[in-house]
Design goal:
By secondary structure, the protein is mostly helical. It contains four helices and no strands.
């Protein structure tokens, strides 16, 4: 495992805590799990961008402005959100009694793959 991938996964772990904590709070507050899930994902997207910008990809040149990188990151995150949310809904439909936080934790995995591949190549690319 490369150091960058290790940092990416560490940031992802922080994002997962933000995601699952937000989901648990929203569901406990009475919000429907199907509405709470994308809100929780969005909270983790925002925290992950800041951490990736400052730590994971801090050594990469900044060819784009912060706003452009942010828009790229958000675009990738929307793809990852779709992958994660689809997995979440599928799990909840296939296993109706699964706790929402367990389904969400499992559903984070496909989004992680999309995030790393797209962000390391597009949002924070290496210069040649």
């Amino acid at each position: 495992m490369t150091p960058r991938l290790a940092r990416f996964l560490a940031v992802g772990a922080v994002g997962a805590v933000v995601n699952l904590g937000t989901l648990a709070l929203l569901v406990a507050a009475g919000l429907n799990k199907y509405l709470a899930s994308p809100i929780a994902i969005e909270a983790s997207i925002l925290s992950n961008f800041v951490l990736h910008q400052r730590w994971t990809f801090a050594d990469r040149p900044r060819a784009d402005s912060l706003w452009v990188r942010g828009l790229k990151f958000k675009s990738v995150a929307m793809l990852a959100l779709l992958a994660s949310y689809a997995a979440f809904v599928l799990l909840c439909r296939v296993v109706p009694d699964i706790p929402p936080t367990v389904a969400q934790a499992i559903a984070i995995l496909p989004g992680t793959a999309v995030n790393y591949l797209c962000n390391s190549r597009w949002t924070f690319p290496e210069t040649r």
